[in-house]
Design brief:
The structure holds two protein chains of two kinds.
Chain A: H1 2-8, H2 12-46, H3 67-77, H4 88-104, H5 123-131, H6 135-144, H7 148-179, H8 184-189, H9 204-217, H10 229-232, H11 242-266, H12 282-302, H13 308-334
Helix pairs in contact in A: 2-3, 2-11, 2-12, 3-11, 4-6, 4-11, 6-7, 7-9, 7-13, 9-13, 11-12
Chain B: H1 3-24, H2 28-48, H3 52-76, H4 81-86, H5 88-110, H6 129-138, H7 142-163, H8 175-179, H9 183-186
Helix pairs in contact in B: 1-2, 2-3
Classes of the chains: A mainly alpha, B mainly alpha.
């Protein structure tokens, strides 16, 4: 590494940063591909089906492990149909606006206490700001398609994301009150001390609100009215095909992994080991993320879709009051000797 | 030229172009999107000024929430460009006055050194802008801050009160009652003795 640094001189820093970015984005994309496979397999097992089990490598079936690759190749070779009467530029811009925030947010996610691309001071704020921009992709896709179904899906999604962002933000305020920091590395370090010290316990209402709001923000079942097949065909991406559709798909799954990473960092102790006699490490982070992802898939196989007014009621009349009350309780308790419960 | 200067001119050029698009775009959705871009690049400029908390908040609040709702409304409106252009000459004097005031303000800010404004020293890298801002807001400026919050709350209540209307004859469901529904309330089990169908009389 020293050799390359001397060879490239001042160009070394950008090149090295690019290498690190690729080292984060590529695994994310691979995990996205195999998350779709896991989703189909797990939901298949839950519904007593096999799931994809045909496509393999070199003539071996290998439980259908080649399926995501085949899907990707299929989507890449398909034509991108642009509907007549659509707003062409925005139609093509929308998938980009959907995936860019989903990727940019990974810049500040720490994988262990040293393995982080940019350990910035206000990383939690940065994540909230960047992820709040993901809604533009959906809204623009709905509008630019010039189709009523797509438009309805876009509007539903916009209202839903904006509503649940508030509850999500309040849940994060609870976390930063406990950790007294906006830095994700420091938030994890503040949870040191084993399973019972992680924030899921003192901030249990926040944990639940964050997890459920996360599902709602992702537009996933049971909150997937934005693409409710039974009413509005496929919602905002009904007119998308080929790679443009695949990019929306990638963005949704990259966001799923992102929310699972954030949940495990803020409420499940990140890379910290649950018991004192085992070492900390990325292994724990991966295990916790997989658990949260499994929850998301499980929700999808278990719950029927919410009705639209029920979603709005849950966000505004249940989650926001719950988080507000818990914030006031926490603030009051922190002024008394009971405050140590929340640190 | 320093790197930050290059970044500044890059952002400034995009900001100006986006600002021009906001007022020249014929399609209101395109105009709203140009405004989003303007906000985003303005956040980049604030970041250059080492105001990272304000920059991130600008993106979080304006780009992430306000403009989404703005876009939401603009998309649903059927805006007639011709009718919007009608009052152009009537409003021009007022617009000119506002623009003139803004030019004067900008001159005073940009030429601040002539009016006795001293540029602050650059802070070290470990200086936490967010923490300092929070401390100031909740100690020295706590009353103005709380008063501003109350004014915003009043505005929210007023906005909701304006849209609250009770129309008679509207069919709606009370979710609280729906949630409480049990099968006893919906199904009544009746023990019926087997009956002979009555013979139809012609």
């Amino acid at each position: 590494m020293q050799f390359f640094a001397e060879l490239l001189g001042p160009a070394w820093l950008p090149v090295w940063t690019l290498v690190k970015i690729v080292a984060i984005v590529l695994p994310v994309l691979v995990v996205v591909a195999y998350l779709t496979y896991a989703e189909r397999k797990i939901i298949g097992w839950m519904q007593i089906r096999m799931g994809p089990n045909r496509v393999g490598f070199f003539g071996f079936r290998l439980w259908g492990l080649g399926q995501p690759i085949a899907d990707a190749v299929k989507l890449m070779t398909k034509e991108i149909i642009i509907p007549s009467g659509s707003s062409k530029g925005l139609f093509l811009l929308a998938p980009v606006l959907a995936i860019a925030p989903a990727m940019a947010a990974w810049a500040v996610i720490p994988f262990t206490d040293t393995l982080v691309l940019a350990n910035i001071d206000a990383s939690l704020l940065y994540i909230m700001a960047i992820t709040s921009m993901g809604v533009y992709g959906v809204v623009l896709a709905g509008w630019a398609s010039n189709s009523k179904y797509a438009f309805l899906g876009g509007l539903r999604s916009a209202a839903q994301i904006v509503s649940y962002e508030i509850a999500m933000g309040f849940a994060l305020v609870g976390v930063l009150m406990s950790a007294q920091s906006l830095n994700l590395v420091e938030i994890v370090e503040a949870q040191r001390g084993g399973f019972w010290q992680w924030y899921w316990l003192p901030l249990f209402p926040m944990f639940l609100v964050y997890l459920i709001s996360g599902v709602a923000e992702l537009n996933r079942a049971p909150f997937d009215v934005a693409e409710g097949e039974s009413e509005i065909v496929a919602g905002f991406h009904v007119d998308y095909s080929g790679m443009a559709f695949a990019v929306f798909f990638l963005a949704e799954y990259a966001n799923m992994i992102l929310v699972s990473a954030l949940t495990s960092l803020m409420f499940l102790g990140g890379w910290l080991s649950p018991v004192p006699f085992l070492p900390d490490g990325f292994f724990w982070m991966a295990a916790k993320m997989s658990f949260v992802l499994l929850l998301f898939l499980w929700f999808r196989a278990t719950f029927p879709r919410y009705r639209y007014d029920q979603i709005m009621r849950l966000g505004w009349k249940v989650f926001i009051p719950v988080t507000l009350v818990w914030l006031v309780l926490m603030g009051a308790a922190m002024q008394t000797p009971l405050g140590s419960l929340f640190h | 030229m320093e790197f930050t200067t290059v970044v500044f001119y890059f952002f400034a050029a995009i900001l100006l172009a986006a600002g021009v698009r906001v007022i020249t775009a014929r399609n209101p959705v395109h105009a709203a999107l140009a405004l989003v871009l303007a906000f985003f690049t303005a956040a980049g400029l604030w970041m250059l000024l080492e105001a990272e908390f304000l920059a991130i908040t600008l993106v979080l609040v304006y780009v992430g929430a306000v403009m989404v709702l703005f876009l939401f409304v603009v998309m649903m409106l059927d805006i007639n460009i011709e009718r919007m252009r009608q009052g152009f000459w009537d409003y021009l004097p007022i617009a000119g006055l506002v623009a003139g005031l803004m030019v004067v303000e900008m001159v005073m800010v940009l030429g601040g050194e002539r009016f006795g404004l001293v540029a602050p020293e650059p802070k070290p890298a470990d200086y936490s802008n967010t923490r300092e801002l929070g401390l100031l807001l909740y100690t020295e400026y706590v009353y103005p801050f709380e008063i501003a919050a109350v004014i915003l709350l009043v505005a929210i209540v007023a906005a909701i009160a304006l849209t609250l209307r009770r129309r008679p004859g509207v069919k709606w469901m009370d979710p609280a009652r729906q949630v409480k529904v049990t099968h006893e309330g919906r199904i009544r089990m009746v023990n019926l003795k087997p009956q002979k169908p009555e013979s139809k009389t012609e």
